[in-house]
UniProtKB/TrEMBL annotation:
It comes from the Eukaryota. This is Tubby C-terminal domain-containing protein. The lineage of its organism: Eukaryota, Viridiplantae, Streptophyta, Embryophyta, Tracheophyta. InterPro entries: LOR, LOR_sf, Tubby-like_C. Pfam families: LOR. SUPFAM superfamilies: Tubby C-terminal domain-like (SSF54518). Belongs to the LOR family. It comes from Manihot esculenta.
Length: 199
């Protein structure tokens, strides 16, 4: 697996989906989005060597969204379910395909219902805390975002948008995940943020 930059030791691990997705060095990921039809898009996640790391399928049906994060062999790792309300968009992520209350890994909601910037609050488990465990912030103009835990930067992504790729139904993100950060968790947040943008 290709990586760049320096190795980090002694950095607290940020593991949400699983320890197997945390590495002691920064990772560069390419996330490709292919729109199959108006209500469905598929994501594929590669390292810089072109190895498939993760894939995401699922789509939007009415106001209920469902996305499944899978490993390269197609095994389900995470199920994301979203609900589009009048002002708030909320998502819950469950381990594997078991979408039961006691199986929630994390929950996501907009930081403000009428936000101007991209802002998401992320809570481990359900919506019971006032202070989020993670915060996602970005800009609609640059189509980029960053993920924080407190003041610690965990990852940053840039949407390589071109009108040609958009018209072809193919888009791409470049994502930098910092050492000891769960890259499957970061990819899940990217998919949720992208999904919110298309609603």
């Amino acid at each position: 697996m290709e990586h760049c930059g320096e190795w980090a030791f002694g950095v607290p691990s940020v593991s949400v989906v699983g320890d197997g997705y945390c590495f002691p060095y920064p990772m560069e990921l390419i996330v490709k989005k292919k729109i199959k039809k108006l209500s469905s898009a598929q994501f594929e996640v590669f390292d810089l060597s072109g190895n498939l790391l993760l894939q995401v399928d699922g789509g939007v049906w009415n106001l209920k969204m469902k996305r499944i994060l899978r490993d390269p062999a197609g095994f389900p790792i995470l199920t994301m379910r979203g609900k589009a309300l009048t002002f708030w968009h909320k998502w819950k992520a469950y381990e594997g395909e078991n979408a039961e209350k006691n199986n929630i890994l994390f929950s996501v909601q907009q930081s403000h219902p009428l936000q101007i910037k991209k802002e998401l609050n992320v809570f481990l488990a359900n919506f019971k805390k006032k202070i989020p465990d993670f915060h996602v912030t970005g800009s609609y103009s640059s189509l980029s975002f960053k993920v924080f835990k407190g003041h610690r930067l965990l990852a940053e992504a840039k949407h390589n948008f071109t009108m040609e790729s958009f018209c072809k139904g193919k888009e791409k993100y470049r994502v930098k995940v910092y050492p000891e950060v769960d890259y499957a968790f970061i990819v899940a947040l990217l998919v949720i943020l992208d999904e919110n943008d298309t609603l």
